Structures are given as structure tokens and as C-alpha cells.
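Lab meeting, action items carried over

1. Structure of the two-component assembly. Owner: GW. Status: complete.
Input record:
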Amino acid sequence: MELSKNPQLLSNIATNERHGENSPYFDGWKAYEENPYHPIKNKDGVIQMGLSENQICFDLIEEWIKKNPKASICTSEGVDEFKNIAIFQDYHGLPEFRQALASFMGRVRGGRVRFDPDRIVMSGGATGANELIMFCLADPGDAFLVPSPYYPAFDRDMGWRTGVQILPVDCDSSNGFLITKAALEAAYEKAIEDNNKIKGLLLANPSNPLGTLLDRETLTSLVSFVNEKNIHLVCDEIYSATVFKSPSFTSISEIIEEMGSEICNRDLIHIVYSLSKDMGLPGFRVGIVYSYNDAVVSCGRKMSSFGLVSSQTQHLLASMLLDEEFVGNFLEESSRRLAKRHEMFMKGLEQAGITCLKSNAGLFVWMDLRWLLKEQTEEAEIVLWRVIINEVKLNVSPGSSFHCTEPGWFRVCFANMDYHTVEVALKRLHAFARQEKLAISSTRYLRNHKLQLSFSFERYDKSCVHVRTLFHRTRCPLTPQYFLDISVPMVRAASRT
Amino acid sequence: MKLLSRKAMCNTHGQDSSYFLGWQEYENNPFDEVQNRNGIIQMGLAENQLSFDLLESWLANNPDVAGFKRDGNSIFRELALFQDYHGLPSFKKALVEFMAEIRGNRVTFDPSRIVLTAGATSANETLMFCLAEAGEAFLLPTPYYPGFDRDLKWRTGAEIVPIHCTSSNGFQITASALEEAYQEAEKRNLRVKGVLVTNPSNPLGTTMTRNELNLLIKFITAKNIHLISDEIYSGTVFKHSPRFVSVMEVLKDRDYDKTEVWNRVHIVYSLSKDLGLPGFRVGAIYSNDDMVVAAATKMSSFGLVSSQTQYLLSALLSDKKFTKNYISENQKRLGKRQRMLVMGLQKAGISWLESNNAGLFCWVDMRHLLHSNTFEEEMELWKKIVYDVGLNISPGSSCHCSEPGWFRVCFANMSEATLNLAMQRLTDFVAEYSTANGHKRLHHSSKNSKKTSLTLPDKWLIRRLNWIRKIQKWLSRHLNWIEKIQNGC
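Predicted assembly:
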């Protein structure tokens, strides 16, 4: 008998759904995996636009690796270090690795702050870092406020095994999704009323999925807020080096330096970082917790045993990130290429008549498709999303998976594919938008002329999918006369479903 | 409101144990063959440093791997992006084949049932998160690896209830000990979810007998609970009589693969001991149950193995010529090293658990050196050995041994010369100790003494000394900063 038939043999954590993998965010990935686009082998496949990866600057890293064989413990130049590195499992991490990370983080912030290598705690990617910091700061049942929309996997990372609750602070397009003090206060008060114990606030800056930055004023007011309530502030800054346009990035570390320790209790401030986005190295699992709280550093370090960075990787990246010339060139070039890609993508969307939230960071845009929703509901958004995956063959991420309270927004990634694939994706979006506009105006025409049809013209039910499919294939115009002719294949098909 | 979590404030991480304190003392005064011959020799760290030359020579012959290349083509991009928690298929295949090879191919493993984790530390914790929670317990035979307190209990909230094993039968698990432990858990209102064993055992350095394995299977069948077999030392067996028998082998031999017990047996593995690569953080969970594999795979997101490392090791372990030679040569070297240690022990008049046939250590009997048969005395003896003799060995109490006087002594993490020196120090110590009258205190005359005429430091003092050292470091950093300012930098 499998354990599935006797689930009490497993823990609650193993059997509950708090891993969040049944979210549409991951469904889209599955659709992509079953039918992945390939420029030659599978031109009709699904293009992956739901994976926030930075594939733009690998050539720079590869070139550095070729020029620096000593950084690898596997080359003849570097193998002298093999034994020392292979046995190194000290959870403090290689000193030069921490030094390199501290230096890199400082460079990303334009040298405006210095980071102390002794406050760097390793973890298994930012995934591990977010979980680790929660284990240090909160007990099961405690809550953290997180402005929405937020990265879907925060539910898993922050809450699955820790038992911590996430309470969203809803932001919407009325003010460009900005976090306001009023919204925060309201969310806090409500949480208290509902008997929740708030232990802190988690921010992603730059924001995923918005691609926007928190300005100095907002950050300062958020620091005041947490000090007032004596709760923690965790700033996930993993996209800090993906800022490609002004305004420039302001890190929480700069704010607390400016505020001074009389106003800000530094024991409340923690940063989560990773090299997965800024350098495009998610496979290397380099995550960091940087805390201004000594007890958190100490406890976090012990916990980091559960997800240390491979010493082979520490060794390689220590060399790379201590190469100041490389780092300077990389950061500049990465920013330039991201800007170029973003501009190309935005132009393409503009031509398709699709607007996005104005952004200057991240590896994605926050696309506004509210005009395509039959009704402003989450259900309608999901229906639209399934059409985009199954019909348009683009895996984009629906706003509801980011806990966005306003239906119709989608996160679309642009940095995880080559130039040609971006063009194909834009073409598909263009065609889709055009077709949808046509469908909308046809609906309006039919409604205005009070025309009745022999089958329901529910836009997004199965029959309509058939209609649309056949429309693509036959390129027949959707005229009312055409619909009344039962001998027409698509009407036959529609009446079958 | 307390600022930090209960987990952050408690000491369930177990790092105040003498096991870890001994490491700290070593770090404050580490032996070096050239630079610090009076330092403390580290014999408390179960590392395998005997076969690096074999790995290094393989690397020299396989340059493609170093350059992130496969068949001459760069795969850097592919690796840099690879974060699939299912793991690199070629690595999982190579890993399960390696595991099978270690078991003489008497069992085979399915790559789709392996979950990769960041070291066995993460594997054990992840498995615990899947199988148990607060209010529940796993039974562990004592003595056991001190890190289990942290790995199994700390963040999961689960409990460990000991199965007491004694020297009367070479510390083997008995049916009555299992039953007693179960009753003890019930008395403590803990629901028993399973048994966890280490086979080969740390700290005993012995392989489990078939009889013990059969007992365990009978027990978990009757109680309807899990069995986790941590087999991370499976490749360190240096004497093959008795040979290593994996629990999977016994299950297979007895046709248990058709029964529901099959789904409740899980293996933990790692390359940290067999290949001597603890820095690479390569651990694995192997389970016959789909739900456990599914849940553990999702959880492995919190500690995946670096793709760079997966790639290197998949190439290494796929080389069957290499693995065959490595397994046999590594075991030969371990055997030789263990014989050196036990010769030294013999010379010092110290006995050890003679069934020692695996692992990177020996379970040493120093009961005759205790003034009285108590753990306090064991601690006193331990402090003498660390500070006076300059050997960091691990006291049995840190491994939850129920009998005072046993110590784990590692032999594979140093050169032969260092091991000889360690044995010499031990011999000298025992000789002096024995010539002292009866139960009088030992005169501190060893040249390795820390030159203190005060009473020996205890845990509290060790922590205060570390705190003072931290302040010294902080002061020195700030003095440097002040100097720079004064010099106008």
C-alpha cells in the first residue's frame, strides 16, 4: 500500500498544498515543458515568457572563465586548490567568497554603501534565504505583511515549512501600484484585529512582478513604519543590478546609513540577495542573507548548514567577483543590454496596442490586458490566460498568481530568450491583439444591430475556441451571414460542442 | 514582543555540545606539522582525505569538465540556468549506479526516486519535514552522530527518542531496546513515526548485521512506521567480514518489494564521506514512495546542488573504470590507516570496538581511565585529552552514548605522520596517567599543556574566551579604521 493511501504516515507539511505548486504560475511552465518552442524543430511551440531569467550576458562570463582557468579547481592551473576546496564545509563560507560578495553588492549600489563580509550568511539561492530568514524571525502562526502583487513562490519560501502566514498589502493601478503608508497602516490594523501577530514586512525592491523601484521617500517611511511597530523589515534586493534606466536604485542599506541608528533600530533590518538574476546564474544556487542583527547572523549561519553554497562554486565566483575590472564592465554592459531589450520589447507591444506599467528594472514587464477581459474578475483573467497559452502559445504569468487584486495584468519576461524569439513572441502578441480587437468590434456590431445567433457566442467557451481555431485556419471573416450558414464547417463544429 | 523566533533563541541546534566545542578549541590552536607542532590535532572531524590524488588525476585526464564543455562544446549557459529541482538526469543516473556499485550491484536504484539535496544535513532534515512534526518522534540507536539533534529536531519540531545500545553486545540493536524506546516515547506523549539508523554506524564504525536489519524490518512492520537508513559511510567499508548489507538488500532478498513496508523505507546518502567532498554539498534521499519523493523534491528547492558541481560529478561517476578503482583503492587505504590507529591504541593500552570495519573513525574504550563511571568524569578526561594531550576527540556523551568512557577517534583526516604523533601523545598520556597513584589528579607536565595552573576551563569559560577573542578582533578592525582616518585616507 502506498503512503498515499495512508497519508497520516506523512507530515502535514508533506501533504498540504502550501508548496503552492498548483498555482497557474507553474501550470504555464508545465504547458511550456510539454510543447517548448524551438526556432527550427518546433516553431509552433509555446514560448516561455513566464520564467524570469537573465540570459543576456553569458558571453561575458564565459569569456572571463576562459581567461581565468585558475578560478576552477578542475583545470591544471587550479587543481592545486582542489583538496582544500573539496573539504571546505565551514558554514562561514570561504572568506574570499564573502569578501567578493560584499564588494559586488557595494558596486551594484554604486559604492554608496559598504557591506561587511562578516554579516553575509549563505543559503541555497534566494529561495533558501527567504525561508531561512523567516525561520530566524518568526514562529509558526506569526505573520509577515507583503505588498501585492508579489512573487508567487513567496508563499512557499516564506510560509510552507515555517508555518508563517503571508498577509498581502494590496496595491493597485490607481496609483501605479505604489505602496502607501495608509494602505500599510490599514493592512496592519486589520491584521491585528484579526488576531494576527505581525513580525515584519517583506519588500521586493526592485519589484517582481512590477519591475519598478521604491523611491527614497517610500523606503524612509517604511523604515519609520517598522521602527514604530517594532517589527522586522526584510528587503529582497535580488534584482538590484537589473536596473537599466533612471531613476537609479536605492537600497535599504543606504537609507539606514542616512537615518542613523538613533532613528532606526538596525536589528530590524535584513537584506536577501542572490546572483540568480543579476548575473544569470540560478543553477549555481548562490543566495545570501545579510542582516544588521548579530543574533540573526549567528543563528542564520547555523541554519545555513541546510543549504550551503558548493565550495567549488564559492571558489569560482570569489575569483570572478573580486576582479574589479570584470565586475565594472559586466554591470555596465548588462544594464545596457537589458535597456536595449526592454526598449525593443516595449516598442513591439506599443505597435500591438498593448500597454504596460512604466518600469525601469527587472527581467519582465507588467502588461495591461484588462481591456480583453469579458468581466473584471479573476475567473475571466484565467480564461484569457489559458487562451494566451493554448492559442497564442506564449507562457505569460497571470496577475492573480501574484495575488494582484486587479484582474487583467500579466507578467511577461523578455530577458530569457534570444533576439529572434522575442521577435516571434511580439509577432504572436501583435496578431493576437489585432484579432481580439476585431472580435470585440464584431461583438459590439452584433450587439448594436441586435442580431441573434443560433449558437451562443460566449467568447471564451469551447465553441468559441473552435471558432477561433477555424478562423485562423480558414481566415474567413466573422460576418453574421457566415454564422447563419450551418453548412459552414465552423458552425458545424460549434454546434457539436 | 520577542524580536526573534523561538528557533533562533533556543539551543536545539546543539552547537553547545562538546562535539562542536572541541572543534572550536582546535580552531583556536590548530596543529600544523611545520608551524604549530604543539597545536591540537583534529581527531573529531570525520573527513576522508586519503584519496584526493585519485580525484585530481581523473581531473587531469578530463579537461572538458573543467571548461564547462561536453564533447568540445560549451554547455556553460545550460548549466548556469539549470535549476530544475529534479536534478541533472545524467548526474542522478551516475549517482544511483555508484550507489549500486558500492553495494556490489546486489541492489539497483531507480534514478527517478533520488532527490538531490545540499548535503546529508539537508537530506535528513528534509526527510524529517516529510515524515514527522511537533509532537512526533523518531527512534535512534545510541550512540548517534551529534549533528542529528540539529538536523532532525531543530527546525522540524520533531523529537528524538534514544534506543539504548550498550557495550555488552557490541552496541548492537536488540528487540527489547527497540520496544523500550517505543514505550518511552509513548510515556512522553510522542507519536513514533519511525526509526533512523546509520549504517555503517557513526560513531561506532561498524556495519549492521543482517539480524539487526531483520529486527528493524519486523519492528517497523509491526508498528506501521518508517525506517530511514543513513548509508553515507557505505563506501568506507574497509573490512568485508562482515560485509556491508544495505537495508534495501534485505528487503529485496525477503521479497518485501511487493509489500507496503517497501514504501516506508528510505535511504539517505551523500558524497561527503565516500568521495571526501563535503564542500560540494551533495546529498540525496532515496525513497520507494512516490509521495515522499514528490514532497522531498519540492522541498529540495531550499537546498539544491550547484549545477556546476552536478555536472562535474556526473562526469566523474559515469567513468566506471574510475569508480571501480576508486572504491577499491579508497577502502584499502582506509583499512591501512585504521590498522595504524589501532596499533597505536594497542601500544597505549587502550582497547576499541573490535567490530570496527567501516567509517573514518574508531570507537575507543577509555573507561579504564575514568576515576569513576560517570559522564562528569568522562568530561574531565576529555578536557585533559583536548588541552593537555592536544587531541580533539569526541566524547561519547556528545553522541548520547549511555555508557561513559567511550570516545570517537577519527583517522582519515590527517597525514600518517600526524597520526603517528597523535598516537605517541596518547601513549605518553596514558603512561603518565597510569603511573599516577589511583585516583589522584594528573600532574600537568605535558609539553602540550596550555600552561595554566588554574582549574581547567569549562564550557562557560570557553564561550567567554571566544567572546573576548571576538571583541579583540572588533577592536583591531576599528583601530585600523581610526588609523586610516588619522592618516587622511
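2. GW to write a short summary for the group page. Key points so far: The radius of gyration of chain B is 24 Å. The longest strand of chain B covers residues 191-198.
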